[in-house]
Amino acid sequence: MKLIYFSFEGTPQELDASEVLRELVQQQSGTVDTPRRTPRVVADSDSDDAVDFGWRVEGDIPGLADEGQGTVKAQLAFNPAAQQFIDFIAETSSWESVGVHGIKRKTWQEGDPLDYSGYLRLRRKGSQFGGFAYAFASTGVINFRLQHSDEIAELAPDAHRLTTGHRRYRVSMQIRDERTLKQALALAQLAYDAT
Hints:
Layout: H1 12-17, H2 19-26, E1 38-43, E2 50-56, H3 66-76, H4 82-93, E3 98-101, E4 120-124, E5 131-136, E6 141-144, H5 150-155, E7 160-161, E8 171-174, H6 178-194
Antiparallel strand pairs: 1-2, 3-4, 4-5, 5-6, 6-8, 7-8
């Protein structure tokens, strides 16, 4: 076993602006299909220097309410599989009666907007079961309303069993490329059909 340890020192803006750090953090074993996105450049008010804070997602995310667009796009800025995540949301939100929602925080009151900063809840309208999938834009992780089984392991080899959290949501996987996107869509279809 090989252990590599890195220590980085700097302001959050300096760390965010570091292309070397970004490449190190985004490295994963295997092939990763990284979409090309437009760099998002923001002026640093203290030094008037242009600082790259990630990537800009062009256009609206299909199926997502206007109130959540900015928050979710900001989360996707550092997700190397942002396009595949958007493709997942676009496909699943096109299914009959599916809505993509934020969540109501414990302090939520009538008239407050939903919170899109944690995860997105994909829900079949009229279903008594709640969401069939919970999607985290920043990481591409999707938790499905499924129980892990041999069938699921065969259908989606990159999925894994969750041992914590709600007992109904025991299958999770991360969308990293086109292959894992296809697996996630297959699991989403199973979860959708079961709700």
